[in-house]
């Protein structure tokens, strides 16, 4: 079976953030990931992970004014300085946490800009991020997000993310393949995984519809997890779903199985 990490922005929300690390360890996870650690000092986050005995395997670059509706800075012309400051901040956190990969959110396509200009901006920003991360042994990821949940997201298909990553042309640049977003937008998960595998630096999952745990929807997760082994994928697979029950533990049947 693949190596699973618990996404602490979605799982274990019945606990305060810094207590979710220990909750994940008690549930059997040896690795965690999360969206944004920036509300907590890096030292506090690192201590929580160390004391729980879990590795931190992924988090996101700062993504703009999230509460105000922004969903990333990667493709936004005129925001390059803010993106770059976010890259530096994320590297500081990654070094404190020993985290080897950081995910870039492309953001919502602003009106009045051509797709070509947005793609150029994103590619320049990805190159900057990859070059800044490379000396620290950190990989940079680009994730496609479905436009049913996030209307207007600029990179909405894994095949497009793969094209942009290839165009940026950096050895430490990969795609983050989220099975939930891919199922909403593209389907054909197994064939797409096989085709994009060399470019995949991290996988996440939730069932569809509803973004719940495996077994709550239409995706055949036992078969797909076995397929990841058959394909030779050795990276992390992040559980990034909204538990349907009152607590996370009651939805972990897929992990026990
Ligand atoms: O929504 C997702 O999927 C993610 O992976 C997040 O990190 C982006 O908000
Ligand atoms: Mg995801």
Automatic annotation (TrEMBL):
Keywords: Isomerase, Pyruvate
GO molecular function: hydroxypyruvate isomerase activity
Active site (UniProt): 143, 240
Xylose isomerase-like TIM barrel domain: residues covered: 21-256
Entry EC no(s): 5.3.1.22
BP terms from Gene Ontology: glyoxylate metabolic process
Enzyme type, top EC level: isomerase
Pfam family, one: AP_endonuc_2
Family: Belongs to the hyi family.
Name of protein: Hydroxypyruvate isomerase
Organism: Pseudothauera nasutitermitis
Species lineage: Bacteria, Pseudomonadati, Pseudomonadota, Betaproteobacteria, Rhodocyclales
Gene name, Swiss-Prot/TrEMBL: hyi
């Amino acid at each position: 079976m693949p190596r699973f990490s618990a996404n602490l922005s979605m799982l274990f929300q019945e606990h305060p953030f810094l207590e979710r690390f220990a909750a994940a360890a008690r549930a059997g996870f040896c690795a965690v990931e999360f969206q944004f650690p920036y509300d907590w000092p890096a030292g506090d986050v690192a201590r929580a992970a160390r004391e729980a005995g879990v590795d931190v395997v992924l988090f996101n670059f700062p993504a703009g004014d999230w509460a105000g509706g922004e969903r990333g800075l990667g493709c936004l012309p005129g925001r390059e300085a803010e993106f770059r400051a976010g890259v530096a901040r994320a590297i500081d956190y990654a070094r404190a946490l020993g985290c080897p990969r950081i995910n870039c959110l492309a953001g919502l396509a602003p009106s009045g800009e051509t797709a070509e200009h947005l793609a150029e901006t994103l590619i320049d920003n990805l190159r900057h991020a990859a070059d800044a991360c490379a000396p620290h042994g950190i990989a940079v990821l680009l994730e496609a997000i479905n436009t049913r949940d996030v209307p207007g997201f600029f990179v909405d298909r894994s095949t497009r993310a793969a094209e942009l990553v290839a165009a940026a042309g950096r050895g430490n640049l990969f795609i983050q393949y989220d099975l939930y977003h891919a199922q909403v937008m593209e389907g054909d998960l197994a064939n797409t995984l096989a085709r994009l595998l060399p470019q995949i630096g991290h996988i996440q999952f939730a069932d569809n519809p509803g973004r719940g745990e495996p077994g709550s929807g239409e995706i055949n997760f036992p078969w797909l997890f076995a397929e990841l082994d058959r394909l030779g994928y050795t990276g992390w697979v992040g559980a990034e779903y909204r538990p349907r029950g009152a607590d996370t533990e009651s939805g972990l049947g897929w992990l026990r199985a």
